[in-house]
Amino acid sequence: MYDLVVLGGGPAGYLAAARASSQGLRVALIEKKLLGGECTNWGCIPTKTLVEVSESFHRLKLMQQAGFSLDIKSISWEQLSEYISRAVWRSREGVKTLLSDVEVIEGFGRLAGPRRVKVETTGSVRDLESRYILVATGSDPRDIPSARVDGEYVITNREFFELKRLPDSITVIGAGAIGVEIATALAMLGREVYLVEILERPLYFTDPDVSAVVERNLRRLGVKVFFKAVTKSVEIVDGVAATTISLGDGSVKVLKSEKVLVAVGRKPNVENIGLEIAGVEYDTKSGIKVGENMVTNVPSILAAGDVTGPPQLAHKALREAVIASDYIMGYASPPPRTPIPQVVFSHPQVALVGLTEQDAAVAGVSYKVFKFPYVALGRNTTALAKSSEGFAKVLVSDDGKILGAQIVGNEASELIHVFCLAIAKNLSIKDVADVVYTHPTYSEVIGEVASLALGRPMHIR
Ligand code: NAI
């Protein structure tokens, strides 16, 4: 009898298993493919490694302004792919180390009852019994009827990060987080990139003033972007993918590229894992229903991560793993599930937490909005890659509480956490303005926007 059996070795599964085992619980974790799941193998880790390389290359080119003439003789796209794979491997090894006290079983697991799991491994079926079961099976990329994934020409992020050589040209369908990050990185490396989005702008979850900055920068980097664009078909002709799209004005275009990347969202992995047998309630779109402490309607079965629905983010999965494992270990007062920040590693970076203006309008919440531009920051003046159009924006309630913040600009991915802390701890905009921020740093944008909101601006008139 185990204390905990975990289905799935992604961020939600591995962290819950590692924490429970570190407290002396008997834990088994079942993984059908690779430990680390989407984030480690085909998501966060390879993407950020690619982004790091392309940003560095971009800066190298900008150094010409400072008098450097650098002659890059060649780039080996094969070696770059290998370099990314090594980062993934290192990250996966880290996960293995965390799981050293967990029995890791390679195979496909299915619930067989409220406390039973059946695992198909090569050549055998094992029956496990456990006090608790955590379902952390994650999500799979979706595709669309007009661009079915064939794994060779039409691919998802998974096949993309398994390519032995980064493609010379790509058509990306979907300008969400994955589409924008990969399009940005490849364009910075001088690859030919088409970006096709069905809506009228990229990053639909940000406010339009934020996505407008991202859109202009995508175009500046040479990405050919098409909004209100419907993908009609993808045909492979003489080893080239020809994507036919129709645009809002009725015109039709054919985009030719080596690969087509489909990045139109993900679906929770709820099918074929025995949820019906165990009596767990779920929905094929929004995933497994969980209550407080990540417990499903079956008291011995918990769920965490992408399988519990949006936002499908690794840090949301990690937090849910902490809550679930705290519950199993009997700890009182788990940490809260919100606010969950979201970051996009575009150029410039985008980060947000709490309510956007669109959310506030839908919820009928009254707010005031304040914006501070990066051009007024000393640190931005010193940067090689300046965020000329960047800004931090904050939504403040009538009684001075911070409802939400969005940052588009250099280091936005790091800066947003000050606002996360402020929202999590119910701090006021005055609390945020009261902090002394080091000069010259990007962090000053936080103090500046907070001072502006108080009606006491500093480096702006
Ligand atoms: P997404 O939901 O972020 O974006 C999908 C995009 O595809 C949307 O803009 C949507 O309008 C568009 N789309 C849908 N159908 C389309 C069609 N037929 N033709 C053209 N465009 C279409 O999903 P994405 O980018 O696939 O990412 C999946 C998940 O992974 C998301 O939950 C995302 O937040 C997460 N992720 C997070 C990252 C981060 O935190 N930095 C990085 C990458 C992914």
> How would the global form be characterised?
globular
Indicate how many domains the architecture comprises: 3
The molecules bound to the chains, other than polymers, are:
1,4-dihydronicotinamide adenine dinucleotide
Please report which band the strand proportion falls in: under 5%, 5-15%, 15-25%, 25-35%, 35-45% or over 45%: 25-35%
Radius of gyration: 23 Å
Q: Low-confidence runs (pLDDT<50, min 5 residues)?
A: none
CATH class of the largest domain reads Alpha Beta
Mean pLDDT: 97
Secondary structural class = alpha/beta
Task: Throw out a few tags for this protein.
single chain; 461 residues; alpha/beta; FAD/NAD(P)-binding domain; Enolase-like, domain 1; 3 domains; seven-stranded mixed sheet; 14 helices; 24 strands; binds 1,4-dihydronicotinamide adenine dinucleotide
What does the model show?
Helix content is 32%, strand content 26%. With 461 residues, the protein is of the alpha/beta class. It has three domains: 2-140 and 267-328, FAD/NAD(P)-binding domain (3-Layer(bba) Sandwich), CATH 3.50.50; 154-264, FAD/NAD(P)-binding domain (3-Layer(bba) Sandwich); 348-453, FAD/NAD-linked reductase, C-terminal dimerisation domain (Enolase-like, domain 1, 2-Layer Sandwich). Strands 1, 2, 3, 4, 5, 6 and 19 form a seven-stranded mixed beta sheet that branches. The protein has a five-stranded parallel beta sheet with strand order 8-15-9-10-11. The protein has a five-stranded antiparallel beta sheet with strand order 20-21-24-23-22, with helices on both faces. Helix 3 packs across helix 4 (77-98). The chain is globular. 1,4-dihydronicotinamide adenine dinucleotide is lined by residues 144, 173-179, 181, 196-199, 204, 231, 263-266, 311-313, 342-345.
